[in-house]
Design a protein that fits this description.
14 strands; about 325 residues; four-stranded antiparallel β-sheet
């Protein structure tokens, strides 16, 4: 890599299929040094496949990935020495203790805990009271911290985290993202995937991915600012019936259930009173319709609708 080049990872037209089913379709984007980059999308979107290609676990069908200027296929050994990978499933040795797992991974990379302790200190100090406990007996949050410590013990340039907070309680999720922010400040480039849309706001930039296609790449704030619909939040005692009614009124927009509310993505010329009156005509008398502010999940759903419409037309 040229001196001063800000790009750490570059994906160039990456495609991958399983049994002729496309998992990635000519995916291209780059990640800058010391950036916290999020890959956001539901299960099956292609997040894990992309990360496995980056970490040399999987070969792409076409395209290439450059890691610090090096081709991940041709120079796979360099990449493996410079990347820390935390897969979605806890994959440490469950019969080894916390300390034994960390020592094992340090030995693999020809280093020691003491040599790189400064990078993991803030994380590992929470595990030290449990050093002799078997990894399999740890709580979900503690397993997460141990896996992160093992991924960092060789001081990698890039940290790749595949859905690291999946199935973890809210407090542990918050703590984990605070750790990532600290690592970013220490110069580590971080790529993290998540199905949790609220975590997107914690990234410098995000790529929204669905069915192997990148829908949008930008900062979370700019993605929200580019939302091109009027969002209405609808409350009703008959949520399911209201959604069915809105499906029969497609000129109003596209509706999705969001917890106890329905979010309707309408064109700019539609008012809340238009929605209420048309719902009343089809028997929904208690619908409360109010304009709302879009979040990342709304943006993702809206982009997904547009993508599906393009596929249908194509």
């Amino acid at each position: 890599m040229a001196e001063g080049d800000p790009i750490m990872v570059s994906f160039e037209n990456i495609s991958k299929s399983y049994d002729k089913n496309p998992a990635l379709k000519e995916v291209s984007f780059s990640v800058e040094k010391s950036e916290l980059f999020g890959l956001i999308g539901p299960d099956g979107a292609g997040k894990s496949t992309l990360f496995r290609i980056l970490t040399t676990v999987l070969l792409p069908d076409s395209g290439r990935v450059l890691f610090d200027g090096e081709d991940v296929v041709k120079d796979y050994q360099y990449v493996r020495n410079q990347v820390g990978y935390m897969p979605g499933k806890f994959s440490l040795y469950q019969d080894l203790s916390v300390r034994e797992n960390l020592e094992f991974f340090a030995t693999i990379f020809n280093t020691s805990i003491a040599a790189n302790y400064d990078l993991i200190h803030d994380i590992y100090e929470q595990l030290e009271p449990f050093e002799t406990r078997r990894a399999g007996a740890l709580s979900g949050g503690m397993k997460q911290k141990l896996a992160l410590s093992c991924a960092l013990i060789h001081k990698p340039k890039v940290l790749v985290l595949d859905e690291p907070t999946f199935g973890v309680d809210a407090v542990s999720r918050k703590e984990f993202w605070e750790m990532l922010k600290t690592l970013k400040e220490k110069g580590v480039t971080i790529l993290v995937s998540t199905p949790y849309m609220d975590e997107a706001a914690l990234c410098d930039r995000v790529a929204l991915i669905q069915k192997g296609n990148i829908l949008k790449i930008d900062t979370p704030r700019r993605i929200i600012d580019q939302f091109d619909k009027t969002l209405f939040k609808i409350r009703s005692s008959q949520i399911y019936k209201t959604i069915l009614a809105l499906e029969k009124l497609p000129h109003l927009g596209t509706a999705y259930s969001f917890g106890q509310e329905i979010h309707l993505y309408a064109s700019k010329d539609i008012e809340a009173t238009d929605v209420e009156s048309q719902l009343l005509e089809v028997g929904i008398a208690d619908a409360e319709v109010k304009p709302g502010m879009a979040n990342i999940e709304d943006c993702f759903m809206n982009l997904m609708v547009a993508e599906n419409m393009e596929d249908h037309v194509g």
